């Protein structure tokens, strides 16, 4: 079975989440010298690329309706577009070194709005658990931007999110298996 287009979303978005996680953990978050650029700008470019790529993949999924998604392709595309928007907004905000609080406001909505997709993933325990992890991760982003959660805790949450919700599903798909 060939890998689904959603695999690209999983891999690239996972890289963006990973890069943000390491930044919030303090790994590579300080400029190398006084005249060096802010590392958050590089994280922003990674995040922006993931967001824009997610848009492309979502439109492809919606148009092609690849098996096994079939009629669920439009719903899945809508969810991917929703997250693509967030990662695009975040990337631009990081590149421009803007205030992250508006991103926190958006993250709060991004945490809650996808919950109705719960029914789309009937029979899929892992996909449903991924939605739960995303709720926690996006609420943590919101709390961190307002100083209510230590950035290192957010970094740890994002690290787990990158691995569990993006890279493990991608690995499952590229090995020819269905996500449980």
Task: Give descriptors for this structure.
mainly alpha, 180 residues, 6 helices
Number of helical stretches of at least 4 residues: 6
The stretches of 5 or more residues where confidence is low (pLDDT under 50) are none
Secondary structure tally: strands: 0
What characterizes the major β-sheet?
A: none
How would the blueprint of this fold be written?
Elements lengths: L5 H20 L13 H26 L8 H23 L5 H12 L12 H21 L5 H24 L6
Helix pairs in contact: 1-2, 1-6, 2-3, 3-4, 4-5, 5-6
Describe this structure as you would to a colleague:
This protein has 180 residues and is mostly helical. It is built from six helices and no strands. Helix 1 packs antiparallel against helix 2, helix 2 packs antiparallel against helix 3 and helix 3 runs antiparallel to helix 4. The longest helix is centred in the N-terminal third of the chain and has 26 residues.
